[in-house]
Structure formats: structure tokens, C-alpha cells
Write a structure and sequence with these properties.
heterodimer; A: about 130 residues; alpha+beta; OB fold (Dihydrolipoamide Acetyltransferase, E2P); six-stranded antiparallel β-sheet; three-stranded antiparallel β-sheet; 3 helices; about 30% strand; globular; B: about 375 residues; 9 helices; 21 strands; about 35% strand
Chain lengths: ~130, ~375
């Protein structure tokens, strides 16, 4: 059974969004996603300053097996991509909800996290997918 | 639901993640694909290859039939137990499948073909056997386990009756021998030493458990793919298919054009292609930038043209991305690969990348 954390929201495509202080948001992929991908060997993070629409492909995570897009759960401006992932992509396997974050975002003013899945709803989604 | 091998229940018990492979439910990994890969390079790993199809060719016309059917020449097989890698071609010289044929005795050769192509292969083989003194027998009663890695042969030998051990350990590469109702061959698909064991389906689970206990790690198709890529070995369906000849697939060495008196299916087409000049060649690639080579990525070769990646992955041994590609004949040195719209540098290298645990290319 994959882990789900209480302090953040989720998407149907297995990303998470965690509110940080001062309105910034941190984004990564879930335990279910990292487990399904297997050993990660390459991560391409977005460059600071890029503007993302909600649902836009913003990063690529590649395991030995395959490449997958990461979709930004909400729109905003990229503040930074996680600089550690270039040399240590396995951080996502080891600590997907912490040190394996992928990007930080300044959301556009109208952003409402309430449209995303809460932990209970995401847990239910995983159960429905057989995890 | 896909087809299941005799080891299916054991895979579930061992926590494997199963995927569809050529219509079969097969383990892609048990724990970590990278750990499984490294176990084979440094120690020993086990692969369930029972989905591959064992076919016995029996009868007084067996040798003559195989000399016609296969692009490599079974006349190279004179010692019982000797095995040969070959392509089976259509009339256009396209590859129907790649396979290993083993000489058991003069009226019995054994062939192992790929899982995804078995039905087409059997139909083709039966069609070509028409009017000849041969019988084509599918051996669905056998399981097959590949034990690979520097420790693998010793672990397998420990499972055998003591009187059989020395002779089995003395097998040269590409030789096999019967041990009771098992057939043990010193072959594989990883670039490491090891044995492939054909055994009765109901004996497979016990053998696997004993090899696990002795220290061989269960390995899935994921590790099998990264191992064979590092070893420079083609995968049917990725690197070649029925529209491609061995000459454009890095397999010219497996085609026996001599003696010229031996006719075989596809010979005329290959001869014509050779005379006209083979326009493309098959090469190894090392990605010099960060990223991962994948099948179907486009290659741009300055002043030469374009090519295509046929297989690509991250190499656990090199800790770099490697692949195979089909490119114009004049290609050499540096090329560029289109990965998600960016052109990244890659270098043409001589295959294989890794053999017997050692890196063979300049990084």
C-alpha cells in the first residue's frame, strides 16, 4: 500500500502539491507514482521563470524502463526546479514527499487548491486502481 | 488474462510486478531493477524464460531441412550439444525470428524461438517442412530457467547429481548436455557466463527456490533488457523484424553465405542487397549528454542524413545512457539525437558495451 501524506493535495495523475510559507507551492510525484516507475535515472525539471498552465507538462521523470511526463497541478510561475535531482534522481524513490520534490511555484492569484484531491479522495483513487 | 508459465504462482509469491510480454504475464521486476541487474553482473540472477518456445525438429531429414530454413549453417554443428545462433528469414531476406538451434543427434535438433513470434514461427516451419522427412514438435511441457552471472554455473551444478557436475561445469560456451530429464546449456542473454536449463514444468519451482536459497537473485524482464543491451544483443521486434535483413541489423556475422552451394530461404534477396550495397548499418550509441535514449528517437548525422534509435536505456554498469541505432552507412563518430525536441550529442561506439562484468568502451 502506497503512502499518502495529510499535509497536501493530489491529482489523478499522481502528483502532489504542498503549500509552503508565503503562498509558494511545492510539487512532486506520489509514492504510488515513484513505485510504479521503478528506479529513477533521469529527471528534467523546469527552469525558473517559466509560466505554467494548470495541467501543463512541466517535468520529465525517467526510470530505467520508461519516460513519464509530470503535469503541473495548478498554474503559476516556476520559482525553481530541485537542483539535486540532476545528480541524484533516486531522491524521488527515497523521499518522494520530502527531498525528492520536483519544483516550487508561485501560483497565479486565482488558484484554488480545493479543486484538487484531498488525502482521503486520493487514497480512495489508489484503492480503486488496485493499489 | 495472459498466458502463464509454470513459475507464475511463485512469481506472485515472491512479490514480482507482472506485465504483459508477447501475450504472457511475466515478471518485469521483483524488488529493484538496478539491484537485479547488478546481481547478474557481480554474482548470480535467475530469469524465467519459459515463455520462449522450445521446438524439436526430428527425423532423418532434419539437417537438410535446417540448412534450407536458417540463414546460419547447421553444418557448423557436428559435436552433440553444440548450439548455433541464427536468423530465420522470409524470401525477401526479412527476419521472421532469431533463435538458437542445438544439435542433439543426427535426427534431432532443438530450437528455441521468441515468445511473441511462436505461432507464426511454428506455422512457417511447418509450411517449409512440407514434403520433407521431418517432424516439428512444440515442447510446451518444458520450463526454462536462465541462471546468469559469474557465480551462476557453480550454483546450478550444486543442484545436479554429483556424478554429473564435473562434465556439466566442463561445458564450453554454446554447448549443452542432457542431465537426466534436464538439458543444461552454457548460453544466455546477459553478456555473463551462466547456464540455461530446460526442465520438466513441474520441476521448475523447486529448482528456482533452491537457486534462490543458494544466493541467485530473482530477476525480471526489466533487468534482462538492460543486461542484453549492455551486452550488445538484439531484441526481436525492437532491433529487427520481418521487413529488415540481418545485414542492416548488425547480424551479418550470423549469415553463412559460404558455401555458395547451400541454398537457404532469403539467400537470393541478401545476395542482391549485398551486390547493390547495404544502405544502412546498425551501431551502438553512447549518449554524451544527460538523458535517456529510447526506441524510435530520431538521429541527425551531419552531412550524412538521419537514423533511428532501435533500443535504448540507462546502463546501470556505465551509469550512462546507451542504445542501438540504424543509420546511413557513412555514419561515424558524433551524431545527434532528438530527445523531446532537443538535439543532444551521442557517439557511435563498437558493441558490446559490457562483457563479463567489464566495460569495453571508452566513456
Amino acid at each position: 500500500m502506497s503512502q499518502v501524506q495529510d499535509d497536501r493535495r493530489y491529482t489523478r495523475t499522481h502528483e502532489w502539491v504542498k503549500p509552503l510559507a508565503d503562498g509558494r507551492l511545492e510539487i512532486g510525484i506520489t509514492d504510488h507514482a515513484q513505485h510504479a516507475l521503478g528506479d529513477l535515472v533521469f529527471v528534467e525539471v523546469p527552469e525558473a521563470g517559466r509560466t505554467l498552465a494548470a495541467g501543463e507538462a512541466c517535468a520529465v521523470v525517467e526510470s530505467v524502463k520508461a519516460a513519464s511526463d509530470v503535469y503541473s497541478p495548478i498554474g503559476g510561475n516556476v520559482l525553481e526546479g530541485n537542483p539535486l535531482l540532476a545528480a541524484t534522481p533516486e531522491l524521488i524513490n527515497q523521499d518522494c514527499y520530502g527531498g525528492g520534490w520536483i519544483l516550487r511555484l508561485q501560483p497565479t492569484a486565482s488558484t484554488d487548491l480545493g479543486t484538487l484531491l484531498d488525502p482521503a479522495a486520493y487514497t480512495a483513487l489508489l484503492a480503486a486502481e488496485g493499489d | 488474462m495472459g498466458r502463464r508459465t509454470p513459475l507464475y504462482n511463485l512469481h506472485l509469491e515472491l512479490g514480482a510486478r507482472l506485465v504483459d510480454f508477447g501475450g504472457w504475464d511475466m515478471p518485469v521486476q521483483y524488488s529493484s531493477q538496478l539491484e537485479e541487474h547488478r546481481a547478474v553482473r557481480s554474482s548470480a540472477g535467475l530469469f524465467d524464460v519459459s515463455h520462449m518456445c522450445v521446438i524439436d525438429v526430428r527425423g532423418s531429414g532434419a539437417r537438410a531441412y535446417l540448412k534450407w530454413l536458417l540463414a546460419n549453417d547447421v553444418d557448423k554443428l557436428r559435436m552433440p550439444g553444440k548450439a548455433l545462433y541464427s536468423c530465420m528469414l522470409n524470401e525477401r531476406g526479412g527476419i521472421i525470428d532469431d533463435l538458437i538451434v542445438t544439435f542433439v543427434h543426427e535426427t534431432w535438433f532443438r530450437i528455441v524461438v521468441n515468445a511473441g513470434t511462436r505461432d507464426g514461427d511454428l506455422a512457417w516451419m511447418r509450411e517449409q517442412a512440407h514434403g520433407r522427412e521431418v517432424e516439428i514438435v512444440e515442447r510446451a511441457d518444458l520450463a526454462m530457467i536462465a541462471a546468469q552471472g559469474p557465480r551462476a554455473r557453480a550454483l546450478v551444478a550444486d543442484l545436479l547429481p554429483e556424478r554429473e557436475r564435473d562434465a556439466t561445469l566442463a561445458l564450453e560456451p554454446f554447448y549443452g548436455r542432457a542431465v537426466g530429464d534436464w538439458f543444461v546449456s552454457r548460453t544466455g542473454y546477459t553478456g555473463e557466463d551462466g547456464f540455461e536449463i530446460m526442465l520438466p514444468a513441474d520441476a521448475a519451482e523447486d529448482a528456482w527456490r533452491k537457486l534462490n536459497t543458494a544466493g541467485a537473485m530473482s530477476c525480471g524482464l526489466g533487468a534482462r533488457d538492460t543486461l542484453r543491451l549492455e551486452a550488445g544483443m538484439n531484441l526481436y521486434g525492437n532491433d529487427m523484424d520481418e521487413n529488415l535483413t540481418p545485414l542492416e541489423s548488425g547480424l551479418a556475422w550470423t549469415v553463412a553465405m559460404e558455401p555458395a552451394t547451400r541454398d537457404f530461404v532469403g539467400r537470393e534477396a541478401l545476395q542482391a542487397l549485398k551486390t547493390a550495397g547495404v544502405p544502412r548499418k546498425f551501431v551502438g550509441l553512447l549518449l554524451e549528454a544527460r538523458g535517456v535514449l529510447r526506441a524510435h528517437q530520431r538521429l541527425v548525422i551531419a552531412e550524412v542524413g538521419e537514423g533511428e534509435v532501435t533500443s535504448g536505456t540507462f546502463s546501470p554498469t556505465l551509469e550512462r545512457s546507451i542504445g542501438f541505432a540504424r543509420v546511413p552507412r557513412a555514419t561515424a563518430g558524433q551524431v545527434q539525437v532528438d530527445i523531446r525536441g532537443k538535439l543532444l550529442d551521442a557517439r557511435v561506439v563498437k558493441l558490446p558495451f559490457v562483457r563479463n562484468g567489464r566495460i569495453l568502451i571508452q566513456l
